[in-house]
């Protein structure tokens, strides 16, 4: 006689891990993954908002495979200046007496300002500079219609130094001042000697789109600073106070101007008259000689509609 014993049938159950998630940043850049364990039942999710909240800013998505089931929670950017909260509920389908799992979701308030400066800044430690680096993207030698040439100028005072690891990641040491500028000069074509001079004159701050179209380029402008995660690699133009290798204070340059004087080969005087997004004045002078230069250029053939440069 053959005896067959059935395996134990587990009762339906539902669990989630973790049941709490950290507060989401205002920019909604992080996704949270919750592992869901469902035994002998299927499950789904819903999002509930607080009274008066128009909703739509929380996205809860189920992830179901043969080997794994999970829940993805993400949020949109908070454009308001108030923190907000909601909840994501995991619930069983077609089975009674299984408690819902409620996961609170909260997001910090949006930012009105990106500057962390508490008042005006008068720069006094950049004469002479400790370093002055630039990168230039010159135009094709035949391109006479290019409205302006793109430069990146990175400079810091003598109390600051920079180092790179084996992977090329940069970091700063020491204390002092750093000014990072992205700007457009008049059109400058490539030359075989790769010797370039930033034209003298006044460069006014201009708000550009994240992706800058050629038609929008205005010569003698400084690209305004924008929101940034890592001040080692700023977006747009920024002032930074360096303290023991870290960025103690910083402000995006959103208004004002800079005057450039060419004092000699690769030698400049920069006179700053900027403001940040809080209205703090950032003024001072920097003087120095270029310590590092790079050229971003890839030769291209002119199109049929381009007349040869005489």
Give a structural overview.
The chain is mainly β and 310 residues long. The protein is built from no helices and 21 strands. The chain has strands at residues 13-17, 32-39, 42-49, 58-64, 69-75, 84-93, 101-107, 121-123, 129-137, 149-157, 160-164, 170-174, 176-185, 201-206, 221-223, 238-243, 246-252, 255-264, 267-275, 281-289, 292-295. The strands form four sheets. Strands 8, 9, 10, 13, 14, 15, 16, 17, 18, 19, 20 and 21 form a twelve-stranded mixed β-sheet that branches. Strands 1-2-5-4 form a four-stranded antiparallel β-sheet, with no helix packed on it. Strands 3-6-7 form a three-stranded antiparallel β-sheet, with no helix packed on it. Strand 19 and strand 20 form a beta hairpin. It is elongated, with a radius of gyration of 28 Å. The model has no long low-confidence stretch (mean pLDDT 94).
- The number of E-state strands comes to 21
Along the chain, the helix and strand elements come as EEEEEEEEEEEEEEEEEEEEE
Silhouette: elongated
Tell me about the largest β-sheet: 12 strands, mixed
Helicity level: under 10%
Task: Average the pLDDT over all residues and give the rounded result.
Answer: 94
The DSSP helix count reads 0
Uncertain segments are none
What structural class results from the helix and strand content? Answer: mainly beta
Strand content: over 45%
Question: How far from one another are the termini?
Answer: 104 Å
Nearest-angstrom radius of gyration? 28 Å
């Amino acid at each position: 006689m053959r005896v067959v014993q059935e395996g134990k049938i587990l009762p339906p159950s539902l669990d989630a891990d973790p049941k709490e998630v950290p507060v989401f940043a205002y920019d909604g850049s992080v996704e949270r993954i919750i592992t869901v364990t469902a035994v002998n039942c299927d499950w789904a999710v819903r999002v509930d908002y607080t009274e008066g909240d128009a909703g739509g800013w929380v996205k809860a998505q189920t992830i179901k495979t043969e080997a794994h089931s999970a829940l993805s929670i993400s949020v949109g950017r908070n454009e308001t200046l108030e923190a907000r909260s909601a909840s994501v509920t995991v619930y069983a389908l077609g089975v009674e007496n299984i408690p819902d799992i409620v996961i609170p979701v909260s997001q910090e308030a949006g930012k009105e300002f990106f500057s962390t400066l508490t008042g005006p800044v008068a720069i006094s430690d950049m004469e002479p500079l400790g370093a002055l680096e630039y990168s230039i993207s010159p135009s094709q030698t035949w391109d006479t219609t290019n409205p302006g040439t793109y430069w990146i100028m990175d400079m810091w005072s003598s109390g600051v130094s920079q180092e790179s690891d084996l992977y090329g990641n940069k970091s700063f040491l020491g204390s002092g001042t750093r000014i990072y500028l992205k700007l457009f000069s008049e059109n400058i074509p490539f030359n075989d000697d790769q010797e370039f001079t930033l034209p003298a004159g006044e460069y006014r701050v201009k708000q550009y789109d994240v992706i800058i179209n050629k038609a929008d380029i205005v010569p003698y402008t400084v690209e305004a600073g924008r929101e940034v995660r890592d001040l080692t690699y700023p977006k747009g133009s920024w002032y930074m106070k360096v303290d023991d290798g870290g960025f103690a204070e910083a402000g995006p340059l959103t208004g004002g101007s800079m005057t450039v004087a060419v004092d000699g080969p690769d030698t400049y005087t920069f006179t700053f008259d900027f403001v940040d997004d809080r209205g703090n004045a950032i003024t001072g002078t920097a003087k120095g000689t270029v310590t590092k230069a790079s050229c971003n250029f890839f030769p291209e053939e002119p199109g049929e509609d381009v007349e040869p440069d005489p």
